[in-house]
Amino acid sequence: MTGEELVGKFEELAKRKTALIRRKNSDYAKNGDAFSNFKGSSEEAGITVIQSFLHLMGIKRARLKELLSGKIPQNESITDTLVDLSNYADLLNIYLSDQEAKKQALREGYTAEREAIKARRAGVEN
User: What is this structure's pTM?
Assistant: First the structure.
């Protein structure tokens, strides 16, 4: 396989993964929160959203191990399992990035508020 063929395969796979995420997100997400289903199931299970993603990835890895050992799939193929596993990893990556962005926004808001308080105090003292 050439490098161009490899890139073409990645592009095809990315399209497939995106279409799957789009379909599932419209089924599972609510109130504009793409992670609402993961948050709700995590809360019910008493685990974090990150632990929920890792658990789902573990289930897919266990399934993959069975399929690669020769088990004949009845419902979900090896490719389907790999796509799901990859999507869970991507979703976790996006979730972590989103959480970090929210924390950064809070830190910046806190810093801006402190600066405003300092400025007001400085104006009062003058």
Answer: 0.79
